[in-house]
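Student: I would love a firmer grasp of how sequence relates to backbone shape in proteins. I am handing you a single protein, as its sequence and its fold in token form. I am told such tokens are a discrete way to write the fold. I hope you can help me see how the letters and the tokens relate. Take your time, and here it is.
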Amino acid sequence: MIDTKRYRSEIQTERFSIMRFKCMRSDLSAAVSNVSRAVSAKATIPALEGVLIKAYNDQLEISGYDLEIGIVTTVEASITEEGEIVVSARLFNEIIRKLPEEIVNIETDDRMITYINSGSADYQIVGINSTEYPELPNVEEISGLTVNAEILKNMIRQTVFATSDNMAKPIYTGSLFEIKDGLFKIEAVDGFRMAIREENVDSDITAKFVVPAKTQNEILKLITDNKKDVTIVVGQRHIIFKIENYSIVSRLLEGNFLDYKMPSSASTEFVINTRILASSVERMALLTNEKIQSPVRCSITADEIKLSCSTTVGRANDVIAASVRGNDVEIGFNNRYLLDALKNADTDEVKVMLNGSLQPMIIRPVDGQSFTFLVVPMRLAAD
């Protein structure tokens, strides 16, 4: 981020509004588009509906912030007059995206008017003084971690689907990140399912914090080069994810996260092709929708799994051959929760473990436990 503290010492309207620069349209468009995802659609502070543009030291710093998450990036520019201003994120994004030429010339005046020129196209839009834009949190590092971008992307992808959208328990609208003894683990739970993903990392730190799902989804969108590293800076109440030339600043969620004890054994266990089981569940789900809900019934015996679903629309049945160890069991699941788990498994085969019809189904890789998915069963009505 650009250090502008020395400029802030002289509170002059002209200093903050007058600026002049030119840059590449494609670079500016990509930056504004990404940063705008952190901008409030409707805010009590008008400046929060805009992006903050700072032009100093031959580069632009562009920020979007909604008081919960901020995205900041830099763009190379040829700067004639240094300064800063806030412009409407939606309007500025659309204008830059549709300009006819690759070179963009932008300047502002002391009336907060921003002039945009590219080829034959000219725009004048009203800006806001940058002093009205809230400062992003200053994160003092308590602990930190550097992790491969592809590893982090996969860990988030395989767990964030299990976060809750119920604000009654805000702690579960995020995922628990835990680093201890060289093991990095992410856990997510929403009361109906749980997802756990872990990887060995070269780190001796011990840390535990809860990252909002919204922040994690932005990380997934910004990771484009899987060979790069992502730097994580953890503070007392906030966290920063540094992804190439982007920084995501986010608040952390506070509260007590679920401490679930995983069963050490299973009364019923089998290994099955992930795609075959997912396809069968999808066929059963054809008879359900948001208005018509019914569990997928799984009758598991020694050599096969019978799946069925019955709704007011009709009835469906399917059979999958399987070698099952342990007790026969009949159990029901919400098809979407079960499919989410199967589709986020990154192995051709999975190990499925059960402890009766009322305990969660556990899904793991055949070897090891890099991921663990739990799906809470639904009670089955009598035939």
User: Anything to note?
Assistant: The longest strand covers residues 69-76. Residues 274-285 form the longest helix (12 residues).
